[in-house]
Each structure stands twice: as C-alpha cells, then as structure tokens.
Amino acid sequence: MSASPPSHSDLSRKSAAEVRQAIRHDGYARHTAGLAAGKLQCNLAILPAGDVLDFLRFCQRNPKPCPVVGISDTGDAFMPTLGHDIDIRTDVPRYRIFRDGQLADEVTNIKALWRDDLVTVALGCSFTFENALIANGIPVRHIERDQTVPMFKSSIPLVPAGRFAGEMVVTMRPVAKDRVQDAYRISRAFPQAHGAPMGHGDPAQFGIADLMKPEWGDPVEVLPGEVPVYWACGVTPQNVLLAANLPLCITHAPGHMLIADVAEDAETTILKPT
C-alpha cells in the first residue's frame, strides 16, 4: 500500500525545495498558503510564444495584479532564475487547462501537455506579504483555518493590450480596525506581491455583492471590530486569458502556487507602532 500524501502541516516547516519535491513525487495537491515562509510564491500563466508579447504588455500596464517575477525560455520547462531544479510541469500542486476560452481540465502535472512553443510567465503572489502581516501580529484567518484565501471578480477595469483585457480579481482579508493602516504599510513593501491594498470597507465599491460568496477560494467572515481589506490578485490573468479565447493556456489552480527558492522581495521587518 502506498503512503498517503503529506499534509499541509507535514510541509509547514519544510524548505521550498522540499515542498516542491513533495508536490512532484509525493502527491501533495493542496493550497500553498503558509508554506516555505520567506520564499517567493508565484502565480503562473503558460501560453504559446506567439501570444506572450501582448500578454507581457498587458502585465506591464497592470502591475498591481500582474507583477512579473520570471519568464522562461520558449519551450523550456525549467526556470533557473527562480530556483534550482524547478520543473514547471510538475512542481505546482494543481494546474488549470483552458482551451478556446473554456476550462477544460484540472490536473496535478502537465507533462503530457508540454510543447516546444510554450512560455511560462511567473507572477508575484499575495501569499508572500501574508508572512509579513503575521510577523507583525496581524492574523491571516484563512491560514489559521487551513483554507484558501477568498477571491472575487471586481468591477475595477484593467488597461488592455492586444487581445488581453477585463476586470481585476481581488482577494479579501479581514483586518482589525486599528491595524488597517499597518496592513497598508506592510504590504506596500512587497510590490512584486501586489503591494498595498486596492482599498478597504464596503465591498460594493468594487462591485462585490456578497463577501460570503467568493468566486474562488473559501468564504471568510468579517468579525465585529474588523474591516475587509482588498488586494489585487494574481488570479486576474486567468480571467483575462479565459476571455482571450486562446487555443491553449495553462495556469495554476487558485491558491496552488509555485514556490520559488528566491527570497521575498522585501525584508519582513517588525514595524514599530506609530
């Protein structure tokens, strides 16, 4: 009888390389929030080389939801700028396959789909600044509950490029009223992980009807004395790629990131009270 896949708890003290090995060989296929603290986590967009230039223009025009942290060579499944022995075909817990604007499948590796014309674009992820929030005494409830951060389609328009256009996806984290400005200051230090929030308070300002009904992830309630705070989200490119009707594109499944060997793009400093 084969051993069971490791749990999130089993991997919580492992290095980024050890977590990737568990994903590659041991069948771990759950979310990566809270794993490999101090290392950059990445959203992914894998698409044919002919569409990459316009997609990179789109990312450059919309850096909050689409901060580019790595680009592979055409047809190369390895990403040496992000870490040693990263195999983009196997080292993400779960992938989504889109064909002609439709979600076609969700899989745990993409070896059978790899082609010589594919390019991987890695984008920064909000899981990076969550470590800094926690280090500064701001709890992150979905991590405490071993859940995936809630993600919502918003009404925030994006700057188009070629066939790529749409609206931003945002994540929501409840923050105590007296720590909201601290949350802005802390996350602002991580521009490659979406930076400071897009705003806080009433979800209607972003076109969100019900905070307990996210499009992706798990619902997280806002308790008395807390304020919902909204950050740009790296799932945004999935909506944009979907609307572009590409014959083939591949992304991570929401909450299931590539964990790099490189450090986060800012130090996790303990802030002094103002």
Structure in words:
The chain has two domains: 8-23 and 36-126 and 243-263, PSTPO5379-like (3-Layer(aba) Sandwich); 136-232, PSTPO5379-like fold, CATH 3.30.2040.10. It has helices at residues 8-11, 16-25, 49-61, 127-135, 141-144, 180-188, 236-244; strands at residues 39-48, 68-71, 95-99, 102-107, 118-124, 151-157, 167-176, 199-200, 226-232, 249-252, 258-263. The strands form two sheets. Strands 1, 2, 3, 4, 5, 10 and 11 form a seven-stranded antiparallel sheet that branches. 21% of the residues lie in helices and 25% in strands. With 274 residues, it is an alpha+beta fold. The protein contains seven helices and eleven strands.
Are there runs of 5+ residues with pLDDT below 50, and where? 266-274
| Through-space gap between termini | 57 Å
If you average the pLDDT, what whole number results?
91
Helix content percent band: 10-25%
Q: Give a quick account of the main beta sheet: strands, pairing sense, barrel closure.
A: 7 strands, antiparallel
CATH superfamily of the largest domain: PSTPO5379-like
Q: Which oligomeric form is depicted?
A: single chain
Radius of gyration (Å): 18 Å
Which helices and strands, and how do they pair?
Blueprint lengths: L7 H4 L4 H10 L13 E10 H13 L6 E4 L23 E5 L2 E6 L10 E7 L2 H9 L5 H4 L6 E7 L9 E10 L3 H9 L10 E2 L25 E7 L3 H9 L4 E4 L5 E6 L11
Antiparallel strand pairs: 1-5, 1-10, 1-11, 2-5, 3-4, 3-10, 6-7, 7-9, 8-9
